Structure formats: structure tokens, C-alpha cells
Amino acid sequence: MALWQVLIGCIFASPGFASEPLTLNVGVYSNPPKIFADDQGRVSGILGDLLSEVAAREGWQLKAVQCQWDQCLQWVEQGEIDILPDVAWTEDRADKMAFHQVPALMSWSQLYGKKDLKLASLLDLQDKRLAVLQGSVQQSYLENLVSSFELRVTWVPQQNIVQSFKAISEGRADVVASNQYVGEQLASKLNLSTSPVMFLPNKLFYVAPPRQHASVLTTLDRYLQNWKQDPDSPYFSVLEKWSLPQTNIVPVFVWWLMAALILGLLLALLIGQLLRRRIARIGDHLRASEARLTTILDSVDAFVFIKDKQRRYQYVNQKICDLFGLKEEQIIGQTDELFFDAQTCEMLRDVDNRVLESGERVTTEETDTLADGTSEMTCVSVKLPLRDAKGKIYALCGIATDISEYRQAQQELHQLAYFDPLTELPNRRLLLDRLHQALMHAKNSGSEGAILLIDLDNFKTLNDTQGHAAGDLLLKQVAQRLGEGLHGKETLGRLSADEFLLVLEGLGKNMDSAVNFATSQARVLLNKVSQPYELNGVPFSGSASIGVVMFSDANGSVETLLKEADLALCDAKDAGRNTMRFYNPVMQTKVNHQSQMEAALRKALEEGNLQLHLQPQLDEGHQVFAMEALLRWQDPDMGWISPADFIPVAEASGQIVPLGEWVMLQACRLLAGWQQNKAMADLTLAVNISARQFYHPHFVEHVEYCITQTGIEPRYLELEITESLLIDDLENTINKMNLLRGMGISFSLDDFGTGYASLGYLKRLPLSQLKIDQTFVRDLLSDPNDEAIVSTIVALGKSLDLKVIAEGVETPEQAQRLKELGCQAFQGYYFGRPAPEAHWLTSL
């Protein structure tokens, strides 16, 4: 059998059966000491030498293919190179290339920068320029972290790691991220500092193109597995070559020579050497472990320390050194009294004693102040006892984390959530919560309470005329005044834009005394608000209206209390402002009636259950020359409703615009019918226009639509406007009137003498007629002042070439006196009451 084996071996060893040696194209990028190409272009470095050791044993030929890192990755994916060293495993890469199983190296990454750069944690990357190897795991890992922490980082990607480090020296970057092998070499060479920030522990492998060179990867696993278990293997020799100083080893022949001389001494020396090597290896491992532990403890964002039983520091990490501004050796052996103020020391001493005496683990949140008082921070501290082999406590270990920023952010969030940022008063949310608690307490104790709803008068006018900055300044000053002199059971807050709420608690069980106190407080607040102000150097006088509700009126409901306070506030404003009003049920009845009327009016408008009545206008010869369209409403349930009642409801509910549009269309339809009737064809129809309807952006378009839709002659349409239109935006008013006047429509100024019109305004307005208000006509015969006013208006109309008509004429004596004063036209019950169109078609 042995003979056959020899023969077969000889046959396969002959040239005809010899296999070609395996040639592997090895991707090499510059990342010393792990991988690079030496001066002869050969694969070198830790991973290069390990691969060469395996190749020498397996008969492989290695051909170095130099490339940049991202190019190397692309080539191995495409199969243009066979083996690429120094690849960290990721799920994405595992899908694109083949990995073996046993890691070639264990690595981690660190950050490096100039020596004066503060870099204690990843958060210190904020606003830094960060150099990374293009396509590296460091780049992808840090990009995710930076995105998660929302840091502003400028990325400086480089084609090789040497360029990444040079970017700092050349001023193109502040920080570079690299694995520790190349980082330590280049940092030392370029005089850069190694930061304590460690991240991304990685296993490094050789990779091949997908589904290729499986046997090569399996062979690498076999060698790595065996070599890692043998301290004298090529694996450890290569690591020692590139990372540790060479050790002088006594040549073997010397030992043989010495053995020949004295075998016993050799044996003793050999045993001693083995023991020393083992001790040295253990010492190296311990020092390495200690160094790693120190690096880790120095890089964590926490204060780590050990104290003995006398509370003297035995160990501190770098963060504590930075806090005290001292070196480690200056802290070791000292107690807290050297570093903290007396109050902090007392608190720390109590906690330390609990740990050392009772052996318990203690977690506290503490506020620590340095001895010089320059720094105060809030920390979460965990302290636990350290025990020896016999279980006896000999020291304590503490870890404290600074949560000052967290607590500050928490406080700011609380402030934003419950306090108004402008006035710093409780906001609506906190105010309603305290009001609810006050109501519950009052219900349980039987004690009375009240709320005062305070609204600034004419605040919108201030904002519109002087700007929101002045409005904000007024709100701050008002809040300060209202808050002066308040007691513990009185809560003031800002409820909305210009509304404040004062909650009064504990007013006793006597209703009369509680009401008197609330009244007194309201008057005090009114007086405070009405005092003069100075807003950005401009004097200002303000006032407020206050609605007051007692707790017992609300039946324990916050919503009801606020609703009733709002009703009382509205009553105070209706009473002329700068006053206070208590809520009473009559107000609620009035509101309910208005709500009922509002709903009924909306239904009437939708179903067309409104009517236009007409009242004639006559000239000096008592000839009808025009009609005024007057809106009337008969509700099925409420009967005839006066315009004096439903027009304010329409104004308040926003229905005045659609109501006015309905009237305009119906009026134009009436005119269209008149133009087919000889008796009515020459009559003008006057239509009342509200201020809100006039200022609606589509008012002109709607009038034009009604004219076009009905085909009327616009010269027979007259629009009656009131002097209130002249208060705001006069230029816009004149422009709109001119547009309508250009269509042929005329204008009459209604209720003249009761508003704000001046001669300057009248001269600019395209008016055709002035209408004397009925209040001046009513007492014309008995009040000389009214007669003088009428006479003045008539003279003014003549001077401006305007027709003057008097409304509210109810007696022949009034009509006669108006003629004598020069009035040209008349309207009133004396000449005819408002009636439906059918009545006038018959009469005329």
C-alpha cells in the first residue's frame, strides 16, 4: 500500500500533472499600519503580512492592485480584484461580497483633532468640519448619529485615510474619524491629539467577490483559527511587529551551549524565563485592560469616582478633572470640602455615610455647587459600596450624570406649557386648571368665590394705529399693574389676546360680603388700568371692562362660569366701557332670545321669507319721485319683528352681508318691473347699505351682477350710506363710490348730522343727496336747537349743490316748517307708511 502511495505521488508530482499556482489580485489602499503597498509595490501592513504568511504556506501568488477605498470596494463587488483586506462587516456589504468567518483583526474607531480642540463627546461635533474616508463605515455610522442628534456638521470626505488626517493640518477640517491602528500612527506623526471619543467596535475581514474564492476564504479561516490559539504563531508575530516594540530574545544556540555546560542551570533559567514571560504577558494584558478601561471611563459623559472610608478620592475620571480644573494627582487623597461649598459637602457626606455604613446602593438627584460658587449643576448620582474578598466594605464607587440641561429644558417646557410668554402670567391651560380646583374647593368647603373677566377697551384700535409692538407693551404693563397686591388665594392669568382673568377664592360663606369684596376688587382693577401709560415714549390712556360672576351662579362648572362672565363683560361694554357688571339671568334670557332670532333669521333668508316694503319720498309739490326699500320680517312663531331688533342680530352674527345682497337683488327686480309700468317708470329706488356690506371685497361686483341680471337702468338706483362709512379707510370708500357712480348709480348720505362727517369729507364724496335724520325733525317745532341744525343742513346742501330730504315727517306742521327752512323733499308717516309694492302700484 505504501508503494502505491509513493507511485501516485510521483505521478502527480511530475510536470505533466503539476497545477498552476493560484494568483490572487489583492486590493490595496493606503491605511497603515493595517494595509498599504511598500516601496516595491508589495502588499504590506498587518493584514498584508498575515495574508502573505498564508500565501507562502499555500503557494499563492499575491499581486497588489492599488486603489482608493471606495474604488477598492467597487472593484471587489465587480470581481476585478480577488481579495480585499481590512473590510468591516455590515449587512449591506454582506449582500454584495463574500466574507470568511474568523475576524482577522478587532478594531474600534476614534476621533482625532488638534491638541487645543475640546472633544469630549460626539455632541462636541456641533459646527465642526469632519474628515472621513469616503465610503467607510465610520462615515455611514457618524452620518446616522449626526442626523439622530440633529447636529450641524460639515463633511470633508477624502479618498484615502492619509489625506483625511492631512486635512486637519492643512486647515480644511477640524476633526478626523479613523480606526485606532492608523489613527495612533498618523496622529503622533502629525502632532494631533487623540480624543476620548471611542465608537464603532468592528471586526475586520478579508472579502472576495460574491460567490467566488470560497476555498481561499475557508483557508484563511483555518489559519486564523489555529494561529490565534498559539501565542508564538505568525499571527502574534505580525501584531508585535506592527504595534509593539521588539523584544530582545536570547538566541537558541546560546541555550544549547549553556545546556551543554550546565544542564541544571539551564533548566532553572528556562523555568524562570517561562514564568517571567507569563508574568509579563499577564502584566501586559492587565495594563492593556487598565488602559482600555481608563479610556472608556474618561470618554463616558459622567463623573466616575472611588472614595475610601474616610471619603478621600482614590480614583477620578477625566470629566471630574475637567470639572475641578485640576490634574488627577491633585485630586487623589482629597475630600469634598476642597471642591464644593458647605451645603453640598454636607449633603454628599450624608449620602456617602449611608453607603459606607449600611452597604446600600443609593440613587439621588442632587444640586452641587463648587466651592467658589461659580458653577452649579443638577446631577443624578448612583453610589454603591465596594467590598473585599471577605465581603467587608472598603470604599464606595459613584457615578454622577449632569442633567442640568435636561432640567432646564424641562423647566422651559413647563413654562411654555403653563405660562404666557409675553406677560409671564398663567396661561389659559393653567388658569382653567386652577379655576377648576377653586370650584371644587368651594363646593367642598361651602365658601364663596368669584371670577373677574377683564377685557381691554379699544385694544384692536391701538394695534391698528400704533402697531403690535405697542399692543404687546401695553399688555405687559397691564399685567404688571393687575398683579400688584394680589394675595395667595387670588390667581391672575391671561385668558386670550386682550383678556385677563382673576380668580378669587375663600371669600367666606356670606354672599353679601363676598359680592362686596368682588366689587371692591373690580373697582381697584379698573382704576389701575385707567392710569396713564407711556408706550415707546408715546402717552396713552386706556381702560377696561369687567364681567363678574360668583361661584354659586355657575353650579360648579368652569364652562358655565366663563360663559356667564363673558355675558357680564358684554353687558359692561354695552354700558359704555370702563365699568363692571355682574352676571344676572336676564342677560342669559336676552342671549337665548338673540340666538333663537339668529337661527330664525338664517332660516328666513334661506327660504326667502323676507319682504321689501316701500315708503314714498315726495318733492315740494308733494309728487312722489322715489321710494325707499325697507326690509320687513314676519316669523311664523315670533310674528312681525322690528328691524331695530333683527338688524343688530344680523350684524352680530355676520348675516348682514348675505341679507344686504338679498335686498339688493330684490330691489333691482322691483325696478325692472317698474320700468314696464308707466306710473312707476320714472321713480328712483333707494336701498340702504350697511358698512360691513359696503366694505365686503365683492360688493361692487355684486351690485354690477344685480344690474346685469335684471337689466335695469342704474340711474334709477340710489344707495343710502351712513356716516359710519367715513370713519375707516376714506380713500377706499371714495374709490368704491366713484366706481358705482360711474355706472350711473347715485348716493344719499343717510341720518346726516348724527355721525362723523365733516365738510372736508362731504366735498370729496360723490353724493347727490343729504338726508336729515328724524331725531332733528321730531322736535323741530319745539326745540330751537333742532331747527338750527335743520337750517344749517339745508344751507350746507345748497352750498354743495346737494338735494336735501327730511325723514320722519309725521305732521303737516313739520312739513310746512321744513319747506319754510328750504328743505326740498320729504319722507315720513304724514306722506305714507311703508307698505308692500302691490299697495303702491294701486295707489299710484
Provide a compact summary of the structure.
With about 850 residues, the protein is of the alpha/beta class. Among the domains are: about 250-295; about 300-410, Beta-Lactamase (2-Layer Sandwich), CATH 3.30.450; about 425-585, Reverse transcriptase/Diguanylate cyclase domain (Alpha-Beta Plaits, 2-Layer Sandwich); about 595-844, Alpha-Beta Barrel (TIM Barrel). The strands form 7 sheets. It has an 8-stranded mixed beta barrel, surrounded by 5 helices.
Task: Describe the SSE topology.
Layout (H helix, E strand, L loop, with lengths): L1 H12 L9 E6 L7 E2 L5 E2 H14 L2 E6 L2 H10 L5 E5 L2 H6 L1 E2 L5 E9 L14 E6 L3 H13 L3 E6 L2 H9 L5 E5 H10 L3 E16 L5 H15 L5 H10 L8 H10 L1 H37 L3 E6 L4 E4 L1 H7 L3 H4 L10 H17 L3 E8 L6 E12 L5 E10 L1 H15 L9 H18 L4 E7 L2 H8 L1 H16 L6 E5 L4 E6 L6 H20 L2 E3 L2 E3 L3 E7 L7 H17 L5 E3 L2 H23 L2 E10 L4 E12 L3 E3 L1 H11 L2 H19 L9 E5 L2 H5 L3 H12 L6 E6 L7 H14 L2 E7 L6 H6 L4 E4 L1 H5 L5 H16 L3 E4 L5 H9 L4 E2 L10 H7 L1
Parallel strand pairs: 1-4, 8-9, 8-10, 22-23, 25-27, 27-28, 28-29, 29-30, 30-31, 31-32
Antiparallel strand pairs: 2-3, 5-11, 6-11, 7-10, 7-11, 12-13, 12-16, 14-15, 15-16, 17-19, 17-22, 18-19, 20-21, 24-25, 24-32, 25-26
Helix pairs in contact: 2-9, 10-11, 17-18, 21-22, 23-25
Pfam families: EAL, GGDEF, PAS_4, SBP_bac_3
InterPro entries: Biofilm_reg_signaling (IPR052155), EAL_dom (IPR001633), EAL_sf (IPR035919), GGDEF_dom (IPR000160), Nucleotide_cyclase (IPR029787), PAS (IPR000014), PAS-assoc_C (IPR000700), PAS-like_dom_sf (IPR035965)
Protein name: cyclic-guanylate-specific phosphodiesterase
